[in-house]
User: Fold these one by one.
Assistant:
Number 1:
Amino acid sequence: MTRMRSRAAEGARIVYHICPNVSPHELTFARAVADGVARTGLRRFVYHSVLHPQIEAMPHHWQKSRVEEMLLAGSFDVTICSRPPICKIY
C-alpha cells in the first residue's frame, strides 16, 4: 500500500492533502499519505486544515491539530491552509 502511495506522487512537485470531511481517521490518513510521499523525496506538503484546529470540543478539528503537529515535526516544507486562500507557509 505504501508503495502505491509513493507511486501516486511520482513526478509531482507538491502534494495537497484534504481528508474526507469530519473523518475520525484524519491523523491515520495524513500519516499514510506523508509516509508514502516522503519515499519519493517530495519536499512540499500542503495540508487542508480548519480555521481553529485547537478546539478540543470539536474532535475533527482536534485531529487536524494533531496532523499539523506531525507535519511540522517532519522533513517536509509545509503549507497549512486553514481556510483557503489563507495559508501559512513554513
Number 2:
Amino acid sequence: MLWLLSIVINVGMWLERFVIIVTSLHRDFLPRRGHVRPTFWTVDVHRTIDCFLTLLFLFIRFLPVIAIFEMRTMLPARGCEGVGKDKGWR
C-alpha cells in the first residue's frame, strides 16, 4: 500500500512540473532582438567592473602575496645579514 502511495505522489509531482513547463512555454518571455539596447549607464558600470577586475588580476599575477610569516622563516635559514632580534624582528 505504501508503495502505491509513493507512485501516486511521484506521478502527481511529475504532472505538476509538466503543467508548469508547458504553460510557461506557451508564451515567449524573451525580448526580441534589436528591441533591447543597453543604456550608457549599463555599459559604464560594466566597463568599470571589467577594468577593476583586469587590474586586480594583473596585480595578483605580477605582484603575488607573500606572507610575512613565511619570509621570517625563510630569511634566517638562508643566512641573510641584518635579520634578527637586534634589527627589530621578533
